[in-house]
Design brief:
The chain has 582 residues and is α+β, with helices and mostly antiparallel strands. It folds into four domains: 3-239, Bira Bifunctional Protein, Domain 2 (BirA Bifunctional Protein, domain 2, 2-Layer Sandwich), CATH 3.30.930; 247-362, no CATH class; 371-431, no CATH class; 439-581, Threonyl-tRNA Synthetase, Chain A, domain 2 (2-Layer Sandwich), CATH 3.30.980.10. It is 41% helix and 21% strand. It has helices at 3-16, 46-49, 97-111, 134-142, 155-158, 228-235, 248-258, 266-287, 296-314, 322-331, 336-340, 342-370, 378-386, 392-401, 408-435, 439-458, 488-503, 515-520; strands at residues 20-21, 59-67, 83-92, 119-124, 150-153, 159-160, 167-178, 195-208, 214-227, 375-376, 405-406, 466-471, 476-481, 508-514, 534-540, 544-547, 562-571, 574-581. The strands form four sheets. Strands 1, 2, 3, 4, 5, 6, 7, 8 and 9 form a nine-stranded mixed beta sheet that branches. Strands 12-13-18-17 form a four-stranded antiparallel beta sheet, covered by helices on one side. Strands 14-15-16 form a three-stranded antiparallel beta sheet. α8 (266-287) packs antiparallel against α9 (296-314). The protein is globular, with a radius of gyration of 26 Å. It binds adenosine-5'-triphosphate (ATP) and magnesium ion. Adenosine-5'-triphosphate (ATP) is lined by residues 40, 68, 71, 80-81, 84, 86, 197-200, 225-227, 229-230. Adenosine-5'-triphosphate is lined by residues 40, 68, 71, 80-81, 84, 86, 197-200, 225-227, 229-230.
Length: 582
């Protein structure tokens, strides 16, 4: 079965059960500064799981692109990926355990025709906070899963939430598939790695309060999540996600460029998996408007690319790793954000690769010097990090391979000393992000950048600067320096130019740099005392470049239609524009 067919079957099945299909959201959560990436289909739905009404009703489903940085270390096995797609269905206070489990069972065994002999289940075993999830196990058994194939585990394995200290939480039930070459034993042993989790249903049965008590929830939700990659491997009998059409063309390209075989040995297989995984994830991250940097999402991206470069070097792969990215675009030809930004994506990968290659050889030589000792000091590891651009887990990995002791604590200590500056910058972003980072204000915030650039272009005056701005979810107000009244024609032109830029679907790029470099890059902003040494610069092509704390949308296409409502004089030499997005 093909990936698209699997996704289609899933969505169609849940639509036939009364669900509405919702959007595949952005990989970068729009209004949640607490995490870097969307890690599950449930993530964009949190407000609705907390009780807000969803406009499409109380039965939803979709496929969601996800990134799990927490799984980067697992990558190299046959079924953990940094980027993957998750099938999801939700009941927001609607159906409960019986229907949910029946739907899941029917989908896997009837729609996908996976043999139930190869399935096993885990359920929550109960503790002082919550009862044993006996009802779930009974439903599975009634559907034909043998009793010995149901195991009960504790909170570590079969419990979800709450997200913070309080809120919805509850047991989950997970489905495993026997992926071993040998025949599965009758009795299910959840510790046996041949059992691979393919999906799970979370039952938000409780609400945890400030006192730490678990009370029955007023709104009981169901959240199902299932991996596309793992599902596809099963359906194609390959026991390895990398042998499905989602990865194979990428692996083939690596084989071709390295002149090595995927199955040419454990280390080669692992290296190829890591490269394929990391490059794919990088393609998706860049398509969201992120570029390599030293903070947040940009740093995750940097690590992924650099790690790929290092493994490519080990495979003796001479050409640019950006070549490996090319098949990713055909595998995912249904993601328009990839197709639209292809040149930029390949370019960014190549640029980062070049940057790292400049220091990689010297770094490796430096590392060899350190490796005469049994232990690497904090200063030494920091040097590799700072001067040679080695991501920290790469240093750790190198140390492991060469049997050198590495202390993350020593490294952290050294890092802290050097970090004050960029941390204050990050805190700045966080603060302004939290002040009001609703979707509406974020959009208007980006619009204000487009507006300022348009004013400068249409009025042909490079001295126009922002004198103040005030943004509410309803409208933006921008004060700018300009000494005469604007004509109607000019106003129309400005409005049109902003709309033109919105229509062009331009990625909004954030970079961190020193104030000095920002000035050199021609970024607009107040260069006096107000900003910390390190600043964020937001660019919308070459059209607009401004120093700003953000947050902003990822792509101008999200903005809709721009309309100027009023232009008036504010004070002498200053004009004021009020505008909205419709
Ligand atoms: P595992 O224990 O195998 O890492 P998980 O418990 O982290 O899985 P969930 O958080 O329940 O998984 O995610 C739901 C489903 O998404 C999983 O059943 C699996 O099919 C898929 N999934 C989760 N993490 C990954 C990953 N890193 N790569 C590929 N698929 C994944
Ligand atoms: Mg996991």
């Amino acid at each position: 079965m093909k990936r698209k067919e699997l996704i289609k079957k899933y969505v169609e099945f849940f639509i036939s059960k009364g669900h509405e299909e919702i959007l595949n959201s952005s990989l970068v959560p729009e209004n949640d500064p607490s995490v870097l990436f969307t890690t599950a289909g449930m993530h964009p739905l949190v407000p609705y799981l907390l009780g807000q009404k969803h406009p499409l009703g109380n039965r939803l489903c979709n496929v969601q692109k996800c990134i799990r940085t927490g799984d980067i270390e697992e990558v190299g096995d046959s079924y953990h990926h940094t980027f993957f797609e998750m099938l999801g269905n939700w009941s927001l206070g609607d159906y409960w355990k019986e229907d949910a489990i029946k739907f899941t069972f029917e989908f896997y065994t009837k729609v996908l025709k996976i043999s139930k002999e190869k399935l096993a289940i885990t359920c929550f075993k109960g503790d002082k906070d919550a009862e044993k999830d006996f009802s779930s196990s009974q439903i599975w058994i009634s559907l034909g899963i043998p009793k010995e194939r149901v195991a009960f585990l504790g909170k570590d394995d079969n419990w979800w939430g709450p997200v913070g200290n309080t809120g919805p939480c509850g047991p989950d039930t997970e489905i495993f598939y026997w992926n071993g070459k040998s025949k599965s034993s009758k009795k299910f042993n959840p510790k046996d790695k041949n059992w691979v989790e393919i999906g799970n249903d979370v039952f938000m049965q409780y609400n945890k309060n400030e006192k730490g008590n678990y009370n029955e929830a007023k709104q009981r939700n169901v959240d199902f999540g299932g991996g596309v990659e793992r599902g596809l491997a099963i359906l194609n009998n390959v026991e390895d996600d990398y042998k499905t059409e989602i990865f194979l063309p990428i692996i083939k390209e690596i084989e071709k460029l390295s002149k090595k075989k995927y199955e040419g040995g454990k280390e080669i297989t692992r290296a190829m998996r890591i490269i394929a995984d990391h490059i794919k994830a990088s393609v998706f991250i860049i398509s969201e408007g992120i570029i390599p940097s030293n903070t947040e999402q940009g740093y995750v991206l940097r690590r992924l690319i650099r790690r790929s470069v290092k493994y490519a070097r080990e495979l003796n792969l001479k050409e640019s790793i950006s070549k490996i990215a090319i098949p990713v675009f055909s595998v995912y030809d249904d993601y328009s954000e990839l197709q639209k930004n292809k040149t930029k994506i390949l370019n960014e990968i190549e640029k980062e690769e070049e940057k790292f290659k400049q220091t990689l050889e010297r770094g490796i030589n430096q590392f060899k010097k350190f490796s005469n000792n049994k232990k690497i000091s904090g200063e030494e590891s920091f040097l590799l990090y700072q001067s040679y651009g080695f991501p920290i887990e790469m240093i750790e990995e190198e140390c492991k391979t060469h049997n050198i002791k590495f202390s993350e604590q020593d490294f952290e200590k050294e890092l802290k000393k050097h970090q004050e500056l960029s941390r204050t910058a990050a805190a700045g972003r966080f603060k302004s992000g939290l002040a009001d980072n609703s979707e509406a204000t974020t959009k208007l915030h980006t619009t204000a950048h487009l507006l300022l650039a348009s004013l400068r272009q249409v009025l042909k005056d490079k001295n126009i600067n922002q004198r103040g701005s005030n943004i509410t979810p309803e409208r933006l107000r921008l004060d700018f320096s300009f000494s005469r009244k604007l004509t109607d024609e000019e106003i129309k032109k400005i409005e049109n130019l902003v709309n033109e830029k919105i229509k062009q679907s331009i990625l909004v790029i954030r970079e961190e740099m020193s104030l000095d470099n920002a000035r050199k890059a021609g970024a607009l902003g107040i260069f006096e005392s107000k900003y910390e040494e390190k600043v964020f610069v937001y660019s919308i092509n070459d059209f607009s470049r401004e120093i700003c704390a953000g947050p902003h949308v990822n792509n101008t296409k999200e903005l809709g239609h721009f309309k100027i409502q009023k232009v008036e004089s504010s004070s002498s030499g200053v004009r004021r524009i009020k505008a909205v997005l419709e």
